[in-house]
Amino acid sequence: MIHLLDLNKSPSERSKYTMGLSLLDEIPANRSCADANILPHWCPCQTFENILLNSSEAVNASQAIVNDINSQLAAYGGICEILEVGEIMDARVGQANDLVLRFVKHENVVVNRTVIYGDRVKPIADYMITLVTKPGNAVFEGTVRHDPASDNYHVLGISRISLYGKTSWCIDSQKMKIFCYCKVQKES
Predict the structure, then answer these.
(1) Mean pLDDT of the chain
(2) Of the residues 71, 134, 165, 172, which has the maximum number of CB atoms within 10 A of its CB?
């Protein structure tokens, strides 16, 4: 609230004296943990990096997405095609920053604050995959979490990013229409 004492100063001038942003200022889209005065070991921000489309991680994450779609459609009596991965269009991996992965504990939170780091833990990775399925050439984007300890790939969410039109006419469920490619297609 100290910014209310001098509204004539710009946000950058006021930020020299405060640890955050004013409620009256717009939050920048690219705000970092450092900008928000969040210590690096508490920063939850993930960095996403491109990975090879033919890497085992991209292939396994893509297959997990298609398996998840097929398992959801299984309850609909075989009216929808069983989908396969046609093409992996994009693959990225996101992991927590290095200091989060090495953080052990902190001491003296207010005065003489110290942070104790240890060995880097093997991180759980989130994969963002964009893929095309066949038949039908539907484009999906999914997030898959990989736990290296168990080598388990768990689908967190799937979105369809292409139109489905009449290709899912055979199914009534609005939720499943985005996934279904009917075995019998109506002619246009």
Answers:
(1) 82
(2) 134
8 exposure class (CB count in 10 Å sphere: 0-12, 13-18, 19+):
exposed
CA R_g for the chain: 23
**SS3 assignment, position 22:** coil
Q: In this predicted model, what pLDDT tens digit does every residue of 143-170 receive, in sequence order? A: 999 988 899 999 999 999 999 889 999 9
Contact between 83 and 65 under an 8 Å Cβ cutoff? The reply is: no
Q: Beta-carbon neighbour count of residue 63 at 10 Å?
A: 17
Per-residue DSSP letters for 105-173?
A: EEE-SSSS-EEEE-SPPPPPEEEEEEEEEETTTEEEEEEEEEETTTTEEEEEEEEE-S--TTTTTT---
Two tokens, residue 32: 């970092």
Going across the sheet that includes 152-160, the strands are: 46-50, 84-96, 125-134, 138-147, 152-160
- Please give the helix or strand (H or E) that residue 177 lies within, else none: helix 174-177
Give the torsion sign (CA, 160, 164, 169, 170): negative
